[in-house]
Amino acid sequence: MGSQRDDGSVVGGRPETRWCAVTGARGFMARHLVAALLRSGEWRVRVTDLAPAIVLGPGENEALLDDALRDGRAVYASVDICNLDQVTKGFEGVDVVFHTAAADPGKNNFKLHYKFIVGNGKNCDDFVYVENVVHGHIYANRTLSTMEGAKKSGGKAYFITNMEPMNMWDFTHMVQEELGYKRPFKIRIPLLIIKPVSYLVEWGYKVLYRYGIYQPQLLTPARVKYTTLNRTFSCNRAIEELGYKPTVPIMDGLKTTVESYIRLKNKVFLTER
């Protein structure tokens, strides 16, 4: 992501509306980013993703994006970021690119995966509410929009979290309780047992691959490794250089997420009926 503008163009006493592009714009975080950019009134947004046409999801038909697509504040472009011609055409005339596209990490069997705790279950993660990630992108753009900020922050990587690290399994339990479920009984599998098993499974599927049988992404050495690691990160650089600070506490974000999930689930259920 980068931006550079030195002319300070002003129209009617306010900065001129400019074009930006968001890659992977139909993804979860990117949808929130697109909405924030449109709400700011500072941007026209080129919404880019792989699909040949945009299809608005439940709750979006009356929302900001639908209005923006109708009045020209947003346009959709089908862009594969691995295709240079499509990227060149899709980004033509934009001042800023917010690159949020990512590869599909694979499907998970949620019920099976969360029945077991791999390792001692004490590892911590740094979770983050989606609006805080959006604010991190906006802070980064503001910094990179100045010559001094571009020199200081251009090309650097920044961690954006809620800065509230907690035990991974405690977090999943909180989600379950917010949804009205009791904490399930967990089966703990020592790392010394599950790690060699994951290598055996991987080896077995390498043999079966010759016969067109692919390895499920649930039990792999990489999954076992990252399930048991402490994954906490320092946001100090983002705080000092971008001015970032979380705006939504983790518990508030969790409650909002669960409420949104229940509301959308009920809306889809009523629509299908």
Automatic annotation (TrEMBL):
Q: Which UniProt keywords apply?
A: Oxidoreductase
Question: In its keyword annotation, does this UniProt entry include Transmembrane helix?
Answer: no
Q: Which Pfam families match?
A: 3Beta_HSD
The record lists the membrane-crossing segments as none
Q: Which GO terms describe its molecular function?
A: oxidoreductase activity
Task: Spell out the family assignment given in the record's similarity comment.
Answer: Belongs to the 3-beta-HSD family.
Instruction: From the Swiss-Prot or TrEMBL record, give the protein name.
Output: 3-beta hydroxysteroid dehydrogenase/isomerase domain-containing protein
Q: Which organism is it from?
A: Urochloa decumbens
Q: What is the lineage of its organism?
A: Eukaryota, Viridiplantae, Streptophyta, Embryophyta, Tracheophyta
